[in-house]
């Protein structure tokens, strides 16, 4: 089978799952342009090898791993980290009885702090708490062991907790 035969299957996958891949990339990178670049790099690399990727099973996990790797590679090339800006789109509505202004400030703070996490920790936290993935699924996507996933999530949450506590302490008069 030549590469031309794979193109319709690849295009169909991108048409049906491309938006989800883009949302994942945005959550990992915290920046729309970086997310688009990472998705583009992942899809360009996958197009020529699509048949082999599908044969290995779970092309979505493979492409998510490619997105994380592409963002990490891009960050290393530029040797700098951009701080994500809070997006006007909110992930969730605040609980009843919670001050909306406080909820917005907390969410913006978490976005900013989450963008400072190392890429793999950020990806593990996003996959667990935004996409509700299991440790096994995250391990397959990040191509690591389940214990590494747990460690990455634990470290990421501990770091976020410490940063958030320091931010709240600094804001207290």
UniProtKB/TrEMBL annotation:
| The keyword Transcription is annotated on this UniProt entry | yes
Output the Gene Ontology terms for molecular function.
DNA binding; sigma factor activity
Provide the RNA polymerase sigma factor 70 region 4 type domain boundaries.
Answer: 115-160
Q: Which InterPro entries did the record assign?
A: RNA_pol_sigma-70-like, RNA_pol_sigma-70_dom, RNA_pol_sigma-E_actinobac, RNA_pol_sigma70_r2, RNA_pol_sigma70_r4_t2, RNA_pol_sigma_r2, RNA_pol_sigma_r3/r4-like, WH-like_DNA-bd_sf
Biological processes per GO annotation: DNA-templated transcription initiation
Name all RNA polymerase sigma-70 region domain ranges: 18-80
Keywords recorded for this protein, A-Z: DNA-binding, Sigma factor, Transcription, Transcription regulation
Q: Answer whether the UniProt record assigns the keyword RNA-binding to this protein.
A: no
Sorted alphabetically, which PANTHER family does this protein's record hold?
ECF RNA POLYMERASE SIGMA FACTOR SIGM (PTHR43133:SF50), RNA POLYMERASE ECF-TYPE SIGMA FACTO (PTHR43133)
Q: Which family does it belong to?
A: Belongs to the sigma-70 factor family. ECF subfamily.
The record's NCBIfam families line, in alphabetical order, gives: SigE-fam_strep, sigma70-ECF
What name goes with this protein? Uncharacterized protein
The organism of origin for this protein: Prauserella muralis
């Amino acid at each position: 089978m030549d590469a031309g035969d794979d193109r319709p299957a690849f295009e169909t996958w991108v048409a049906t799952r491309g938006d989800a891949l883009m949302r994942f990339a945005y959550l990992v990178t915290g920046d729309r342009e970086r997310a688009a670049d990472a998705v583009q790099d992942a899809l360009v690399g996958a197009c020529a090898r699509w048949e082999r990727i599908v044969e290995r099973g779970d092309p979505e996990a493979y492409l998510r791993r490619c997105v994380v790797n592409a963002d990490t590679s891009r960050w290393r090339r530029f040797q700098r980290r951009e701080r994500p800006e809070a997006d006007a789109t909110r992930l969730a509505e605040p609980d009843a009885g919670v001050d909306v202004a406080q909820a917005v400030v907390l969410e913006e703070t978490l976005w900013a702090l989450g963008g400072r996490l190392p890429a793999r920790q950020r990806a593990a936290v996003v996959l667990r708490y935004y996409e509700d993935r299991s440790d096994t699924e995250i391990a397959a996507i990040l191509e690591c062991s389940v214990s590494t996933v747990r460690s990455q999530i634990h470290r990421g949450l501990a770091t976020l907790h410490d940063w958030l506590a320091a931010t709240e302490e600094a804001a207290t008069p």
